[in-house]
Design a protein that fits this description.
The complex is a heterodimer of chains A (154) and B (733). In chain A, 35% of the residues lie in helices and 15% in strands. By secondary structure, chain A is α+β, with helices and mostly antiparallel strands. In chain B, helix 3 runs parallel beside helix 5, helix 12 crosses helix 13 and helix 16 packs antiparallel against helix 17. Classes of the chains: A alpha+beta (154), B alpha+beta (733).
């Protein structure tokens, strides 16, 4: 199926099966390897991207359901003011350990702050609980979200 | 690093040479690394580790695999410190697998720090000496009059100074000095070691750049997915690939027979396609018949029954005995007996096992997220009948190790597929369910303990019978019972024995191997012993540790001296026990919901206190964790150290309350993804307070030693909260 996708502000044409998950279209056909494969079932959040600003699991989102929606991946997230703040906070606090989950963590954090610019701690936990970090960088994920939201870096 | 040496060393790695000489470790690195020595207009490579660039930056090679433990900052920090350059001038480059050039290259046993603390500093000092020698010649000044600072050579007498880059070409022609002639910095003058340093890859990770093995992209690459038997180790009897081959994009289906690690050989079908998604979809329409060969007899129920039978008799093998445990138990005023058990668990690295391989003109190039790449290279050479010199292994960043990637099965599979398709790069990725099926598991096990207390409440006898797993009577990786198990090593009468069961599941090292089960079982049992004598566990621990002294460990047979278990320093142990009590403000009274755990592993001493409560839903929540640790004189990178310890606490929570368990029935693992294999999420993570005790000992690593006592402390906290002893992991209400 020939489809024109809008990814990180660019129109990109692909010709792949309609039921191919967005994750693999991004990784294999468009060269965006930032979104990661972890579980293939929407359980770990490593593949999280934004679809019209909403955090979605790209491993479960088939190409034919994307339509004209704007997709933002980790490679393009810093183009938005909130995305830039979150990315900067992630670097400043040195959140990653192995780093594999972090693209998904950042996308979920950006979606949270876009809808809730000053989340309380329990709101951060609720919004981020779908993103697994096997290394356990959770304290720094909280700190980075607080810093990006302009709050105290505790 | 041989399998045997790592097996011996990974639990509590010791370097006798290092301890004997206060940190100077006999570790052969050929700093000359002639093959790395070259000079061009743009850059001068002084040694295998140090290259001076035309822009006055320095490229430092990091030799070991980065799995999230922070070596990609830590190792170059050691070099940069002694090279005497600013950290901001350092660029870090990952080495390829080449042990002849770089020395040991692996990520395991928390050994990167103790094995490299001196050699990497020497590597930096070597390059610095070559630069200084070049300056001395150019300026006709004695070497002794030259100093360095911040990437410059300075001659105070004449006021001359030159940036390293101005001397680079000449320095590259200098002879590599003998290690004995090097002068290392006074630790009081460290400017990089001991300061917080961010991960060199952090900006690239945050930008989503390709770094990980799974991100490897090569022109014309094809993708492969595996199908293996539901019952681990079952042989492929027959298959029908017609439907899979009919799918658009599927290139071929290969039969792989008896490949992988020697103790985990499997039959598999490999689907090769234009896309991994296509290959993985095609797996679902492959038809395969497997010959289980009796492997379906293995199950948790069968293991428990075998353990029960074993406990009715004597251990199959004695491990250690001292004094007269029988007599001491008979004569004891009080005897405490209990059985503890823990399940098989999986590593569940977030990046699934994967590997990319290209076979071309008789040579094989591999891109592998492996913790022990040199062993993988040898394994591939053997499996494919290639010379090791015909194989190149590139080390990628690794999306979590936890010990899983000390095994290199994925390298063998990818290489075998690639050889079948010369000239075409092949990337193999395990689907998550295959990643669980193909793990090398942390063994389950069963302990039967007995402790004897005298009339004064003193522990006078300790007995442990471990029913564990392995083959031919020998425990598998991380399934052993050490002869110097605490408290057997400090009580007057002790008797340790084991019985080894067999199963179809191959075993692997998992973060703090052996210690991660022994800490839970022994510290849980000692908590019971403490209660029986009216004490808290930390009070009992301080009593058992007594005055500061060194308790030698029994020698392991057939293991080189350098890899023998280290002695146990009761003073260092007591130091962290007291420190954690201080920061947790815990006196000598038990507190409901509060638990304690201590463990010594990987040369690190750690004590943990955990508090827990029952939530409104009845589920147990950990509300606070305090940690005290002693890893020697120096915390090389405090920014990373903090996170390693926090991560270890959270991983420990996984063992106890999040539900890490791989149930086994019919020879099959009954988990396939993160819905049934449940790891800690952000919403269960409590505040963690850390205090490090610095002692005059060579520094050791932090990837592992903090975790075992966390498991014990959390389990003991739950026992205290509920009044019902947690003798089985994971905790189930």
């Amino acid at each position: 199926m020939k489809t024109v996708l809008k990814v990180n502000g660019q129109s990109r044409e692909v010709d792949v099966p309609a039921d191919k998950p967005l994750l693999w279209v991004l990784r294999e056909d468009l060269g965006y390897v930032g979104p990661k494969f972890g579980c293939g079932q929407g359980l770990c959040g490593a593949c999280t991207v934004l679809m019209d600003g909403q955090a979605i699991r790209a491993c479960l989102t088939t190409l034919d359901t994307v339509g004209a929606a704007a997709i933002t991946t980790i490679e393009g997230v810093a183009a938005s003011p909130v995305g830039k703040k979150v990315s900067d906070a992630w670097i400043d606090i040195d959140v990653p350990q192995c780093g594999y989950c972090q693209a998904g963590q950042i996308m979920s954090a950006v979606a949270l702050l876009e809808s809730n610019p000053a989340p309380k701690d329990d709101e951060i936990d609720a919004a981020m609980a779908g993103n697994l970090c096997r290394c356990g960088t959770y304290h720094r994920i909280r700190d980075a979200i607080r810093q990006a939201s302009g709050g105290a870096n505790v | 690093m041989s399998d045997q040496a790592l097996l011996a060393g990974t639990r509590r790695f010791a370097l006798k040479a290092m301890l004997a000489t206060g940190g100077v470790l006999a570790f052969n690195i050929e700093f000359a690394a002639a093959q790395g020595k070259r000079a061009t207009a743009a850059a001068s490579k002084l040694t295998a580790y140090v290259q001076l660039n035309a822009d006055n930056s320095v490229t430092i090679t990091s030799k070991n695999p980065e799995i999230g433990q922070g070596v990609k900052a830590m190792l170059p920090m050691l070099i940069a410190e002694e090279l005497d350059v600013a950290w901001s001038a350092v660029r870090v480059e990952q080495a390829v697998a080449d042990q002849a050039k770089f020395g040991e290259q692996f990520a395991g046993g928390s050994m990167s720090t103790p094995m490299n603390w001196m050699p990497m500093r020497q590597a930096g000092a070597t390059a610095r000496a070559m630069i200084v020698a070049a300056a001395a010649k150019q300026w006709s000044a004695p070497v002794a009059e030259l100093t360095t600072a911040n990437g410059e050579v300075i001659h105070a007498a004449t006021g001359r100074r030159a940036p390293y880059v101005a001397l680079a070409q000449a320095a590259a022609k200098e002879a590599v000095p003998a290690v004995e002639t090097l002068t290392l910095k006074d630790p009081a003058k460290f400017a990089i070691i001991g300061r917080p340093v961010r991960g060199p890859d952090t900006p690239a990770i945050v930008a989503g750049k390709p770094l990980f093995g799974i991100d490897t992209q090569l022109p014309g690459m094809v993708h492969a997915a595996l199908v293996t038997a539901p019952v681990r180790g079952a042989l492929l009897r027959s298959h029908d690939a017609a439907k899979a081959l009919a799918l658009p994009g599927v290139r071929k289906v290969l039969v792989l027979r008896q490949l992988g690690e020697a103790d985990g050989l499997v039959d598999a079908l490999a689907v090769v396609a234009d896309s991994w998604w296509t290959a993985n979809e095609a797996r679902k329409v492959l038809v395969a018949e497997w010959d289980n060969g009796g492997r379906e007899q293995h199950s948790d129920a069968a293991f428990a029954a075998a353990a029960k039978a074993a406990f009715a008799g004597k251990p199959a093998a004695a491990v250690a005995a001292k004094g007269d445990a029988n007599a001491a138990l008979k004569g004891a005023a009080k005897v405490v007996k209990a059985q503890y058990t823990y399940p098989f668990i999986a590593h569940a690295t977030l990046e699934p096992q994967n590997c990319t391989a290209l076979f071309k003109d008789g040579k094989l190039e591999i891109w592998a997220p492996s913790q022990m790449p040199d062993e993988g290279l040898k394994l591939v050479a053997k499996a494919l009948g290639l010379e090791t010199s015909a194989i190149t292994v590139n080390l990628t960043r690794i999306g979590g190790g936890f010990g899983r990637r000390l095994q290199n099965d994925y390298m063998v599979f990818a290489a075998t597929i690639a050889r079948d398709m010369p000239g075409i790069p092949v990337k193999l990725i395990y689907d998550r369910d295959e990643d669980f099926k193909l793990d090398f598991f942390r063994a389950g096990g069963f302990h039967q303990f007995e402790a004897g207390l005298d009339a004064a409440g003193k522990l006078v006898a300790f007995r442990d019978h471990l029913v564990t797993f392995g083959a031919g009577g020998q425990p598998g990786r991380g399934a052993e019972l050490p002869a110097d198990l605490f408290p057997a090593n400090v009580v007057a009468n002790a008797d340790l024995g084991m019985t080894v069961l067999e199963s179809n599941l191959p075993l692997g090292w998992l973060r703090a191997p052996a210690s991660n089960t022994l800490a839970f079982a022994t510290q849980g049992f000692l908590d019971e012993v403490a209660s029986a004598s009216g004490k808290t566990l930390p009070a009992l621990m301080l009593e058992l540790l007594g005055d500061a002294r060194i308790v030698a460990a029994a020698k392991l047979p057939g293991v080189p001296d350098a890899f023998q278990p280290p002695p146990f320093d009761t003073g260092r142990a007591a130091g962290v026990v007291r420190e954690v009590l201080k920061i947790a403000k815990w006196g000598d009274k038990p507190l409901k919901g509060r638990g304690f755990g201590f463990y010594f592993s990987h040369l690190g001493y750690f004590a943990v206190v955990a508090d827990c409560t029952a939530g409104a839903d009845g589920a147990v929540r950990v509300t606070k964790i305090w940690v005290a640790g002693d890893i020697g004189s120096t915390i090389i990178n405090p920014l990373n150290a903090e996170q390693q310890i926090r991560g270890a606490m959270i991983d420990g929570m996984g063992h106890v309350i999040s539900g890490l368990k791989v149930p086994i029935t019919g020879g099959q693992v009954q988990v396939a993804n993160y819905d049934t294999y449940t790891l800690p999420r952000i919403d269960v993570v409590p505040p963690i307070e850390i205090s490090m005790v610095k002692t005059d000992n060579p520094p050791t690593g932090l990837g592992e030693p903090a975790m075992p006592p966390a498991i014990a402390a959390i389990a003991n906290a739950i026992s205290s909260l509920t009044g019902k002893r947690v003798r089985s992991l994971p905790y189930e209400a």
